[in-house]
User: What shape does this take?
Amino acid sequence: MRASHGVSAYMQAVGYKIIPVNPQIAEALGEKAYPSLLEMPVEMRERIDLVDVFRRPEFVDEIVEQAIELRIPAIWLQEGVINEGAAERARKAGMLVVMDRCVLKEHRARFG
Assistant: This one.
């Protein structure tokens, strides 16, 4: 019962398409998982609106670099995930950045 699973399950239940990216798993929430953003099929990568990051801060740099390369419009770093350098690089690349906040809590606060 990791936070990443619970938050993703909630977001999926309220209508968002969740594609897991994790090199340690083959699937989650009924969706095939991919080891990295760059290893997703091109047609899937082109439709990503947001990357929600649950990884420790030292792993954020690589994720942000991949998101910049793929021109993903937004990156969300969950509570406790703080990497100011990566966030600044993402902003300079034109991405919306949310850091140290929970997407589930924010969704519930705005939409109930």
Remarks:
- The chain is about 40% helix and 15% strand.
- The first strand starts at residue 27 and ends at 28.
- Residues 3-111 form a domain with the Rossmann fold fold (CATH 3.40.50.720).
- The chain has a mean pLDDT of 96.
